[in-house]
Amino acid sequence: MSESFPRLHARTRRFTLGVPRGFTISPDGARVLFLRTRSGTDPVTCLWELDTATHVERLVVDPRALDTDEENLPPEERARRERSREQAGGVVAYTTDSAATLAAFALSGGLYVTEPAKGTTRRLETPGAVIDPRLSPDGRHVAYVTSGSLRVQDLATGDDRALATPESDTVTYGLAEFIAAEEMDRHRGYWWSPAGDALLVERADEAPVQTWYIADPANPDRPAVPQRYPAAGTPNAGTELFVLGLDGSRVAVPFEHEYLTTASWDSHALSIVTMSRDQRTRRLFTVDPATGRSTLVREDTDEAWVEVVTGVPGHLDDGSLVWVADDEGGRRLFVGDRVVTPPTLQVRDVLDIDRDTVLFRASGDPTEIQLWTWDGHSLMPVSTASGVYSGRLAGGVGVLTEQSLEREGVSATVVLPSGMTIPIPSLAERPGLDLRVHLGRSGTRDLSTAVVFPSWHEPGSRRLPVLLDPYGGPHAQRVLASQGMYLTSQWFAEQGFAVVVADGRGTPGRGPAFERAVLNDLATPVLDDQVDALQGVAQQYPDDLDLSKVAIRGWSFGGYLAALAVLRRPDVFHAAIAGAPVTDWRLYDTCYTERYLGDPHTQPEVYDQSSLFADAAKLERPLLLIHGLADDNVVAAHTLRLSSALLSAGRPHTVLPLSGVTHMTPQEVVAENLLLLQVDFLKKSLGL
Predict the structure, then answer these.
(1) Using an 8 Å Cβ cutoff, are 95 and 135 in contact?
(2) I want to staple 457 with a disulfide (CB 3.0 to 4.6 A). Which of 7, 431, 453, 569 is the partner?
(3) How, if at all, do strands 149-154 and 160-164 pair?
């Protein structure tokens, strides 16, 4: 008998195992390195290489052959994987030298270097567990972090020395602090110089950050784990930058702003990007590595907030700056002093710069993310069919990944300068669902909406109970032209629901004004838009939706939205499942929360308006709260305090605590049974 969808969904880590990812193209375009597990249920990631001339791929590193214990990870690496939402094990990240002839990676705290051409992999001796190893561009050295120290090892001699050692147990060198990794998509804390003779290094000191304690009540013999958590309105970690030379030199690089959003060091410039605490000002500087003096290149301001865009700054071969900023109502690509994309094309990120060509992702239709290039003269689409695309570009060779509504999973293709294509097979499992997804627009605000019906449903034959399945918050979309976005929604539909997924105000893809509609209010616009979308869909399918039986489920921001829905609109929503919900924004982190709600000390009424606690007495519908007790992102206090407020108000509700579970809920049995329990709760709550 084939496995059930919930079990397969859990075993395959949401069908991500077996999918090729993490591509590196050699500068001559002759080879493509990538990561992939050996099957769709194998959680151990291997390193592979594809020869673009022979079209032959081969296994470079199989962690199992290195006899390592994947469970023996240093705490810093576990935290890094949680921040990056990494679901697999094995070689989950690697770096190469500039020629891509060497690759370095950490495995169970050990440091490894491999030479793909020779097929040899060796473990290097280190004084401690290794985090984030990075090869120098010339391939002569590898840098890494251990116990908060930044160290460099000479690959020829084995000489290993510390370039910077922490002055206290709250200091680290070379690691991204919590806020950078969680909210600014910066997962690194040091950058090699192009010559390989120096590094730009972040020093982070968490001493100013308040300490919280993550306890495991199911195991009272274990002490609570202390965690520095910068909640809204409280101090962040202090960050500094230094240029550390291999000759032992140390040059400070001072900057004024609270946040270091990113840095880059190429043959044209050492660049840093900083952002003010209120996130209304972003500055780009070039730095003289010999003196640490900074020169302002560009400043962007916005009355609401400036957006952090990954992949920039960068430079073309002629030194022209590549940048992304909001302009004339759109998020646009700038090359030098010239804006090269129209305001109707919303740039998502920059993926690569290959000599004079910029590869980037952008959306015209918010349900699609297409690939584009700017070659110095013209703007050209790389992808044309409906879908969600990403890619890489180097040496004139491209890698294109595609997801669509027409095919299952993720396809990856190498595109040669001649136009010849080489597929990189995906080994992912097939979900085994017959998707019935209808994309469109609904409601008075013309919101992007997906309606998912059971495969067995005949249009107009009966009215089905409705399940809203949103995320609904900033920086994430659910309504995209990709089958992978709707697998769980389709499974819920097969249990007898019409599932509605809507992206309301605050979600990306429709331009800065649409995103900024949630400024100073994370509750009203997002909830109004879910109601608006539901009513719009009901008008489109009047004989298929039963609005007397409407439920809503979600996780993280979606969990907040689900709880908000039954508390404030019980006339519309009759049951809710709130997973890991933010219930009081004062308990969430500085960068995310203050971007939308400002400082809780100066705008307490804004936080009160978006909190759930004042609405506790209004609950009159079934509410299931689910929370991992080991969650260090949205801590369990969110759910426990809301539960306490509901109890004080005499409002019955259900709480499901998950011992040892983090924000990602990676455990297979937990992930499987969570789906089954949710269906059972929904059916009982709606009287089905």
Answers:
(1) yes
(2) 453
(3) antiparallel
In whole angstroms, give the CA distance from residue 581 to residue 638: 7
Cα–Cα distance for residue pair 468/535, rounded to 1 Å: 12
Contact yes or no for 505/513 (Cβ under 8 A): no
Partnered with residue 392 across adjacent β-strands are 399
555 burial type by CB count under 10 A (0-12 exposed, 13-18 middle, 19+ buried) = buried
Please state, in angstroms and rounded to a whole number, the distance separating the CA atoms of residues 248 and 674. Answer: 53
* Res. 673 pLDDT band, cuts 50 70 90: confident
Whether the pLDDT of residue 487 is over 90: the answer is: yes
Asked if residue 422 lies in contact with residue 501, where contact means CB atoms within 8 angstroms, the answer is: no
Sign of the CA dihedral running 597, 603, 609, 612: positive
Q: 109: closest CA among 136, 84, 89?
A: 89
Helices (H), 169-289: 178-183
The CA distance from 290 to 540, in Å, is 65
Work out the angle at residue 221's Cα, subtended by the Cα atoms of residues 219 and 222, and round it to the nearest 5 degrees.
75
Helices in 471-556 by DSSP H: which ranges? Answer: 487-494, 512-515, 524-540
Beta-carbon count within 10 A of 287 CB: 23
Q: Which amino acid is at 5?
A: F
Residue 291 has which token pair? 């003196």
Residue 531 and residue 473 in contact, taking contact as beta carbons nearer than 8 Å: no
Whole-angstrom distance, CA of residue 615 vs CA of residue 239 = 39
Asked if residue 614 lies in contact with residue 604, where contact means CB atoms within 8 angstroms, the answer is no
3-class state of residue 667 by DSSP:
coil
Determine the 3-state secondary structure of 378 from DSSP.
coil
Burial class for 70, CB neighbours closer than 10 Å (0-12, 13-18, 19+): middle
Q: What is the pLDDT of residues 611-655, one digit of tens each?
A: 999 999 999 999 999 999 989 899 999 999 999 999 999 999 999
Residue 668, SS3 per DSSP:
helix
* Peptide bond connecting 20 to the previous residue in cis, omega within 30 degrees of 0: no
Say how far apart CA 255 and CA 252 lie, in whole Å.
10
Query: 660 in the Ramachandran plot: left (φ > 0), alpha (ψ -120 to 50) or beta?
Result: left
Computed over every residue of the chain, the mean pLDDT equals: 95
Condensed to tens digits (0 to 9), the pLDDT of residues 362-393 reads: 999 999 999 999 998 899 999 999 999 999 99
pLDDT at residue 666 in the model: 57
| CA 308 – CA 293 distance, rounded (Å) | 24
Q: Which neighbouring-strand residues pair with 654?
A: 624
Calculate the alpha carbon distances from 203 to 165, 173, 322 in Å.
10, 5, 27
What pTM does this model have?
0.95
- Work out the angle between the directed axes of helices 557-568 and 524-540 (0-180°, nearest 10): 80
HSE on the CB side for 254, CA within 13 Å? 3
CA distance linking residue 343 with residue 328, whole number of Å? 6
